[in-house]
Here is the input.
Amino acid sequence: MFERFDREALSVEPPAGYQPGPPNADQAAAWQWLQDWCFEDLKRPWAMAYLGGPLGSGRSHLAEAFSRHLDGDTLLQQLPHGWPRLRLRLAVKLTDSLPWRARQPADPWDCGFLPGSEVALQALSRFVPRRATLMVADELSAPAVAERIEALAPRQAQYRQPVRLLIVERRPAWSITRA
Here is the structure.
């Protein structure tokens, strides 16, 4: 019940240079695909997907907005300060503490960006998800992404919560594919 978000393995802050922009039709279609992908088989402990698009297409913005939606931050920001926000946080802690309770689609996930640091890479080798988790690899080189996947690989089958890795990369056209 008192587990915390793993700030060594994941960062809640997007990579430097993130510039939000208005959503477009490609982003709306990709949003629904991401929603379906995350929830399609919550008993599967591990899944990866690639989100690609040209520079300036908003793929990083989409990943950021989707993760804020999935982790409940968007809902939290819509509530007035004080008791309503505290009540939501307490309700999340309560549901996290009930091991017999089946995961619900509205339950918040842990979402974060994979940092490029060596400290974060070491933390990933010990990572254990406290709840369903979306990891976003954005602005990381292909070798850095491969290192992070390798660090996570030995424990993936033992995850008790679903973990999804979304790799954001530059491509000539919008695309979203499973790995």
